């Protein structure tokens, strides 16, 4: 069985993963602490950025 991790997640999922509200996520995106990408009209966040962001906050 194949298992994979998504390369990008939507903003709702990113908020859930980081345990933050949407407003704070968009503040981090605006500051450049997290990158945002647009796929069509949808804003997505790279999974690698979420992992490194969380690791930097834990260390």
Question: Any overview of this molecule?
Answer:
With 59 residues, the protein is an alpha+beta fold. The protein is 51% helix and 19% strand. The chain has one domain (8-58). The protein contains three helices and three strands; from the N terminus they run βααββα. It has helices at 11-18, 22-31, 47-58, and strands at residues 8-10, 37-39, 42-46. The radius of gyration is 12 Å and the shape is globular. A hairpin with a 2-residue loop joins strand 2 (37-39) and strand 3.
Count of distinct strands:
3
The first-to-last residue Cα distance is 34 Å
Q: What is the gyration radius calculated from CA atoms?
A: 12 Å
Helix fraction by DSSP (H/I, runs of at least 4): 40-55%
Task: Give the SSE string.
Answer: EHHEEH
What's the pLDDT, averaged over the residues? Answer: 95
Strand content: 15-25%
Sheet with the most strands: spatial strand order:
1-3-2
Number of domains: 1
Structural class: alpha+beta
Count the helices. How many? 3
What is the 3D form? globular
Question: Uncertain segments of ≥5 residues (pLDDT<50)?
Answer: none
Main beta-sheet strand count, sense and barrel state: 3 strands, antiparallel
């Amino acid at each position: 069985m194949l298992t994979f991790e998504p390369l990008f997640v939507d903003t709702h999922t990113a908020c859930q993963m980081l345990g933050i509200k949407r407003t704070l996520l968009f503040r981090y995106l605006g500051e450049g602490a997290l990158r945002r990408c647009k796929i069509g009209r949808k804003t997505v966040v790279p999974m690698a950025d979420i992992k490194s962001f969380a690791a930097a906050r834990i260390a």
